[in-house]
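Deliverable D5.2: sample structural annotation.
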Amino acid sequence: RFVFLYFASLLAGSFGALLLSPDSLTAGASGAIFGIFAAAFVIARGRRLEGMAAQLGILLIINFAFTFGYPGISIGGHLFGAAGGALAALALVAGERGRLGPNHLTVELVAMAAIGVAAVIGAIAVA
């Protein structure tokens, strides 16, 4: 599940970087890291761990402040990476709550793979 979450966030972040800054050179996995932060926030909320969710929310806000406050940081990569991770986490939370049926793990993985595929298709369309 973590590998699928990571790659969904990574690909979504790459798409966001390409979409918002098509002429900029970017490198790194910060979009994936933002996706993991956002996913951890969504999962903590889904598990009703409000104290942990609040701390993760503050961490996200601080990191977004740096993203928007310093030049040369990939805003698209961070925003779309976080969005991809949050969407992937929604599938995980739905699976944990039994909303995806008895084969919830398969549905979760397919949903996360679909996020990655959509990001790749979007990146190809933009390029």
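Annotation notes: The mean pLDDT is 94. The helical segments are 2-20, 30-46, 50-69, 75-96, 104-126.
The annotation will be released with the project's public dataset once the embargo ends.
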